[in-house]
Write a structure and sequence with these properties.
Elements lengths: L2 E3 L5 E5 L6 H16 L4 E6 L8 H13 L1 H7 E7 L3 H13 L6 E4 L2 H16 L14
């Protein structure tokens, strides 16, 4: 099951499992669409360690949602940090973002701590304050 944890909002943590259904993917996208609508700045950490790969149809749907929400996302989503175990996947995603830049800053990392340090810095630049909590990763702070 795809988990979306916003207990430490403005930090939203997404945990991707090894597989998911079409319904889970749609629920995940619907949930993520709620954050720009809050009209509050936030950051997203996607923990994809051990995650599966979205199908072509799921990638297409995600791209459609991103395009539809681009204006609000640019305004309120400060940045997205993605955590992958695989250096190859991190490199591939970095290359893809060079070719097709995302609407908000996005970077890949080997660990949640690295991602959160980066997100904390960007949030500080955008809001004048660091993230109030790293949620379940507070022990890494």
């Amino acid at each position: 099951m795809i988990r979306v944890d916003d207990v430490a909002f403005p930090l939203v943590v997404v945990s991707l499992p090894s597989s998911w259904s079409e319904d889970e993917w749609e629920s995940y996208l619907a949930r993520m669409r709620t954050y720009p609508s809050r009209r509050e700045r936030y950051v997203t950490l996607t923990d994809a360690r051990g995650a599966g790969t979205p199908s072509a149809a799921q990638r297409k749907r995600a791209a459609q949602v991103m395009a539809e929400d681009e204006a609000l996302s640019k305004r309120f989503n400060v940045a997205n940090g993605l955590v992958f175990e695989s250096a190859l996947l991190r490199g591939m995603l970095t290359a893809i973002t060079w070719l097709t830049p995302p609407p908000v800053p996005m970077q890949t990392f080997a660990s949640p701590r690295q991602a959160l340090e980066w997100l904390d810095g960007l949030y500080l630049s955008a809001q004048g304050t660091k993230l109030p909590s790293w949620g379940r990763f507070d022990g890494d702070r």
